[in-house]
Design a protein that fits this description.
Elements (H helix, E strand, L loop, with lengths): L2 E5 L4 H12 L3 E6 L14 E4 L5 H11 L1 E6 L6 H6 L1 H21 L4 E7 L22 H20 L2 E7 L1 E3 L17 H9 L6 E4 L11 E2 L1 E3 H16 L5 E5 L5 E2 H12 L5 E4 L8 E2 L4 H7 L8 H14 L6
Parallel strand pairs: 1-2, 1-4, 2-3, 4-5, 5-6, 6-11, 7-10, 8-13, 9-14
Antiparallel strand pairs: 9-12
Bound molecules: nicotinamide-adenine-dinucleotide and galactose-uridine-5'-diphosphate.
GO molecular function: UDP-glucose 4-epimerase activity
Pathway: Carbohydrate metabolism; galactose metabolism
Subunit structure: Homodimer.
Length: 329
C-alpha cells in the first residue's frame, strides 16, 4: 500500500482519518506541530513526526525516507473568531505555510493532495442547499485563507501538474465508533462538544447564540457531518486521485440541517441529563442556514454519509466525552 503523509494528523479530523487509513492498511506518516493536536490521538501504527509544515528540510527527509505518494493536508488554524482578531496569523499559518508546504512536496515529486477546506469559503450563500459552483465570498479571514489555498491549486496544477481535491467540510462532529478518539480542542467553540461539556457539569449552561434567525425555531441551522464519514471521504478522494479523477472542490455534508435547539434536545435525549440553556445574542458572522448540496461527491467519489444522523453523531461524541472528561490529558 502507498505511504500517505498526513499533516495535522494529531488533530480532531486528522486523527480519525489516520485511524481509517490504518484500518485500510495504508502506511501513514503523521506530521504535526501539536499546537492544537494531541500525541495520544495518533494510533501507534502511524509513524509520528513532531514538526511544522514550514520545515522544508524535515518534509524533504520524510518524503524520501518513507517514499510518500500523496498527502492529506489538515494542518491549520481554524478558529473563526480568532481569525477576525488576527487575520495576519491566519494568512501566514494557513495560506503562506500551505503554499510553502505544497511547493516543497512538488519539488520532492509528490503531486497528489487532499485538502481540508471549509463551508466558510462560501460566506453568506445565496442558494440553499449550497452547491460547489456557488459564489465563494468568505466573510472571515479563516474562510478567506482557505479559499486562497484552493485558488492556488488551480495554478499549481497548470504549472506543475498538481492533482488536488479540496473537501469543503460542513460541521464536523461525533467521535470514533469504538470510543477510542474524539474531539478535544483546548479553545472549544463548537456547539456539540460544548453542549456535552454542559451535560457533564463542566459548564453552567449552553448559550444559544441567537433566537431570531429566519428558521422555524429561530435558531441557526447547520449540516452536521460525522467525523467517521468525513474520514471515509478522504480515503475515497485519495483513491480518486490515484485513478486520475479531475481535480476540484467537493462539499462534504449530508444535505440535511438541524437547528441549535434540535441539537440540544437530542443531547438531552441521548445523555438522559438536564442541560441548562441560556438564550443569548447572535454571534457575529453566523449565517441563518448552512446546508450542503452533496450530489457531486456522491456521484464522483461514490461517497455517502453512513453515520451522520444526529443521534449517532451525539451518541458517539457523548461516549467519548463521558469516558474522557479531560480529553487526552
Ligand atoms: N472542525 C470542523 O468543523 C472543520 C470544518 C471545516 C474545516 N475544518 C478544517 O479541517 C482541518 C482539521 O480541523 P480540526 O477540527 O481537526 O482541527 P485541529 O485543530 O484539531 O487539528 C489541526 C491539527 O493541525 C496541527 N497543526 C496546526 N498548524 C500546524 C503546522 N503549521 N504544522 C504542523 N501541524 C500543525 C495541530 O496541532 C492539529 O493537530 C483544519 O484545516 C480545519 O480548518 C474543520
Ligand atoms: O456555544 C455555542 C456554540 C455554537 N452555537 C451555534 O451553533 C451553530 C454551530 O456552531 P459551531 O461553532 O459548532 O460551528 P460553525 O457553524 O460556526 O463552524 C463550522 O462551520 C464553518 C462553516 O461555516 C467552518 O467550517 C468552521 O470551521 C466550522 O467549525 C452556530 O449557529 C452557532 O451560533 C451556539 O448557539 N452556542
Amino acid at each position: 500500500m502507498p505511504t500517505i503523509l498526513v499533516s495535522g494528523g494529531a488533530g480532531y479530523i486528522g486523527s480519525h482519518t489516520v485511524q481509517a487509513l490504518i484500518e485500510r492498511a495504508f502506511k501513514v506518516v503523521v506530521l504535526d506541530s501539536l499546537i492544537t493536536g494531541h500525541r495520544g490521538a495518533v494510533p501507534s501504527q502511524a509513524i509520528f513526526y513532531e514538526g511544522d509544515i514550514s520545515d522544508a528540510e524535515l518534509i524533504g527527509r520524510i518524503v524520501k525516507d518513507h517514499q510518500v505518494e500523496a498527502v492529506i493536508h489538515f494542518a491549520a488554524r481554524s478558529l473563526v473568531g480568532e481569525s477576525m482578531l488576527k487575520p495576519d496569523l491566519y494568512f501566514y499559518e494557513n495560506t503562506a505555510k500551505s503554499n510553502g508546504f505544497i511547493s516543497t512536496l512538488l519539488r520532492q515529486g509528490v503531486n497528489k493532495i487532499v485538502f481540508s477546506s471549509t463551508a466558510a469559503t462560501y460566506g453568506v450563500p445565496e442558494e440553499m442547499p449550497i452547491s460547489e459552483s456557488a459564489k465563494t465570498e468568505p466573510i472571515n479571514p479563516y474562510g478567506a485563507s482557505k479559499r486562497m489555498i484552493e485558488q492556488s491549486f488551480y495554478w499549481l496544477e497548470q504549472a506543475y501538474g498538481l492533482k488536488w481535491i479540496a473537501l469543503r467540510y460542513f460541521n464536523a462532529a461525533g467521535a470514533s465508533l469504538d470510543g477510542s478518539i474524539g474531539e478535544d480542542h483546548t479553545s472549544e467553540t463548537h456547539l456539540i462538544p460544548l453542549v456535552l461539556k454542559t451535560a457533564l457539569g463542566q459548564r453552567e449552561a449552553i448559550s444559544v447564540f441567537g433566537t431570531d434567525y429566519s428558521t422555524p425555531d429561530g435558531t441557526c441551522i447547520r449540516d452536521y457531518i460525522h467525523v467517521v464519514d468525513l474520514a471515509e471521504a478522504h480515503i475515497l478522494a485519495l483513491e480518486a486521485l490515484e485513478k486520475d479523477l479531475e481535480s476540484g472542490a467537493y462539499n462534504v455534508g449530508t444535505g440535511k440541517g438541524y437547528s441549535v435547539r434540535e441539537v440540544i434536545d437530542m443531547a438531552k435525549k441521548v445523555t438522559g441529563l438536564e442541560i441548562p440553556v441560556l438564550d443569548a445574542s447572535r454571534r457575529v458572522g453566523d449565517p441563518d442556514i448552512l446546508v450542503a448540496k452533496v450530489e457531486k461527491i456522491e456521484k464522483s467519489l461514490g461517497w455517502k454519509a453512513q453515520h451522520s444522523d444526529l443521534k449517532t453523531i451525539i451518541s458517539t461524541a457523548w461516549q467519548w466525552h463521558k469516558c474522557h472528561p479531560l480529553g487526552y490529558e
